[in-house]
Design goal:
By secondary structure, the protein is mainly α. Helices cover 76% and strands 0% of the residues. It has helices at 2-23, 28-46, 56-87, 93-114, 117-131, 146-153, 163-199, 205-221, 224-241, 246-262, 270-278, 282-311, 324-327, 330-348, 353-372, 378-416, 418-430, 434-449, 454-464, 466-470, 476-489, 498-507, 511-521, 528-534, 543-566, 574-588, 595-613.
Length: 625
């Protein structure tokens, strides 16, 4: 019964998102309160307390209490939104009680959805706001009583009902629905078949297929763990069947899936959050993410290629690879092209982002119905559409709960000023050195991001650490891209590497060897953030020449880093080869227009020497070195 109720409510949430994307959202606080009430209720159904336990009857009462408290608080906001926005009321005892109840509901659902780490951080933020005035020195702040904190969190649009919940209930929700419809109407299988066709027949074909498929899925889903669970259940068993080492198979899927967080258009919802925080258009953020994401996937592809050559990994069997005519059938391609065409038409014609997503959904559904006439029964088509609505509704639970909790934390950071204080301390410690500030910020981002979903990690580091970079002259977009990349890397960085844990579970192998392979495969990801700081062209700034300079430098690193880690021979002298690779990497990171050209020249000379010495030298396996 609970599963049926969850399915009905998830479909209703999907329809709610579809309606508000088409007709426009309700009044700001009304839209956010309705959305939060719905996702908390669905979270209680999807993640019940103590299921199967003798204490379940008591747990049902607690679940109902949390849902009722949530709707009382949300209902109060819906009925009084005009008064709250215009009169700025003082908090009463009832307001404090509703705030406490709603915060507890958000934190408890957050604990069930993503674990204890994130709710604990939010609790620390709340305790610091209420008791931080007892701390002496720089880390202390003015005293705030519970009524003032309530006014900040509940009776306004800077606390729980702030910008993060706003974009979760509108823009992000619309794109999650767009992705769900795209995948459930055949786009998912099309992506998988395309990846199989493009990568399957070359050395390490299954690993390359996993890289391409995860990239395509990631552009839509934007979740590393969801990518691993979706594509990994197909690609990892395939790689193991072809005798790929299990840790390597898990690492390939984990790293490739991490790119889903970095690849436009959704970027794990971070693109919309970043645009909101920076006050820039979504297109600006999306354009800024294209080149870094491209270099990331090229580097993973290159690393997989050289490792496959060294280990003599097998290609995918010809009979398992779909033919081009099968993949490119117009009935398969039309819905995908219609969806993407409608989306970009909406964006390029100046529509709001959520309206553009609705145009993409509408075009997709029209194309899907058209190509299904005669081949699909109406009931089967309806089941696919309901499955998409259900999937979108369930996917919005984690996003809604996380961003509501993150908004509480951000509100407390802004209220106490701790973000500015920590940024000042970092700048003081680093002595205004951009390099030192960047290194310190990057390391802290990785630590903070461990165990947290990427969007939540980004929101936290953006509030606390990005100001340290802007304080030493880094542009806001570059600073936010920098902290976003390092927060993302945490999902493949030991010891808390969530994507690796999931992939290792599917591969039935120990996570530690898989994590070592993942760090090796994703080595370029640790360099890309520094390139963003060095080359403005990395994020689409500075004109065509700057973009070309950044691209050339990136391509040098895409080749040099995997070849260095794989110890690929060039000159026949290993020490000289390693020195050449390291020199090319260092020069490529020098902020001078001639540096990428010089670095590329080093690699070209090395390639020429390898070809002259032995035509196949560049493809020597590890056993031949």
């Amino acid at each position: 019964m609970r599963d049926t109720a969850a399915k009905i409510l998830a479909v209703f949430i999907g329809l709610f998102v579809l309606y508000t994307s088409a007709a426009g959202p309700f009044e700001s606080l009304v839209q956010r309160a309705l959305f939060l009430g719905l996702v908390v209720t669905l979270a209680a159904l999807m993640y019940p307390l103590a299921p199967g336990s003798r204490l379940r009857p008591v747990a049902i009462v607690l679940d109902l209490a949390l849902v009722i408290v949530t709707w009382v608080a949300c209902g109060y906001i819906i009925l009084n939104y005009d008064k709250i926005m215009n009169a700025l009321p003082w908090a009463t005892g009832a307001d404090v009680a509703m705030t406490v109840g709603l915060v507890l509901a958000i934190l408890e659902m957050g604990r069930r959805v993503v674990g204890l780490i994130f709710p604990t951080l939010v609790v620390i933020g709340l305790v610091y706001a209420l008791l931080g005035h007892y701390i002496p020195g720089l880390l202390g702040h003015s005293q705030f009583d519970p009524y003032f904190v309530t006014e900040t969190l509940f009776l306004g649009d800077l606390g729980i009902w702030g910008s993060l919940l706003s974009i979760a209930s509108t823009v992000i929700a619309a794109f999650v629905l767009f992705g769900a419809f795209l995948l459930h109407t055949g786009g998912g299988q099309t992506f998988m078949d395309l990846a199989m066709r493009v990568g399957g027949k070359s050395p390490g074909g299954a690993a390359k297929m996993a890289t391409i498929a995860s990239g395509l899925f990631g552009m839509v889903s934007g979740s590393a763990v969801a990518n691993v669970a979706t594509t990994g259940n197909f690609t990892i068993p395939l790689m193991k069947r072809l005798s790929y080492p299990a840790p390597f198979a898990a690492a390939v899927e984990a790293v490739a899936s991490t790119g889903g967080q970095l690849a436009p258009p959704i970027m794990g919802a971070a693109a919309f959050v970043m645009a909101e925080i920076l006050g820039v258009s979504y297109v600006t953020v999306m354009v800024g993410a294209i080149l870094p994401a491209l270099l990331f996937y090229l580097s993973v592809f290159m690393t997989v290629h050289v490792v496959s050559l060294q280990r003599n990994l097998r290609i995918v069997d010809e009979e398992s690879i779909p033919s081009w005519p099968t993949i490119l059938r117009w009935r398969r391609l039309l819905p995908v092209l219609a969806a993407l065409g409608g989306l970009f038409f909406g964006i390029l014609t100046g529509r709001s982002v959520q309206t553009a997503a609705f145009i993409g959904i509408a075009a997709l559904l029209l194309a899907f119905i058209f190509v299904s006439i005669g081949s699909n029964r109406p009931k089967a088509m309806l089941r696919q559409m309901l499955a998409a609505l259900d999937d979108a509704g369930r996917g919005l639970v984690i996003i809604g709960i996380l961003l509501a909790g993150a908004q509480i934390l951000v509100a407390m950071i802004n209220l106490t000023g701790i973000g500015v204080t920590l940024s000042s301390l970092i700048v003081t410690l680093a002595g205004d050195s951009v390099v030192l500030v960047a290194i310190i910020v990057g390391l802290i981002c990785i630590v903070i991001g461990m165990g947290l979903p990427t969007t939540a990690a980004y929101v936290l580091v953006a509030a606390v650490l990005a100001p340290a970079l802007t304080g030493v002259g880094v542009t806001p977009l570059a600073a936010h891209m920098f902290v976003f990349y390092f927060a993302t890397i945490s999902v493949i960085t030991p010891p808390v590497c969530v994507a690796v844990f999931v992939a290792a579970g599917i591969a039935q192998t120990n996570w530690l060897p898989a994590a070592r392979e993942a760090v090796r495969l994703g080595a370029m990801t640790y360099v890309v953030p520094f390139m963003i700081l060095i080359y403005p062209g990395m994020i689409g700034q500075g004109g065509a020449l700057a973009i070309g300079e950044a691209l050339l430098s990136g391509l040098v690193l895409v080749v040099a880093i995997p070849f260095l880690l794989a110890k690929m021979p060039m000159t026949g002298n290993r020490a000289l080869d390693i020195a050449a690779y390291i020199l090319a990497i260092i020069i490529a990171l020098v902020p001078h227009p001639a540096a990428p050209v010089f670095a590329a020249s080093i690699l070209f000379v090395g390639w020429w020497m390898a070809r002259k010495r032995r035509p196949s030298a560049i493809e020597l396996t590890a056993s031949q070195e």
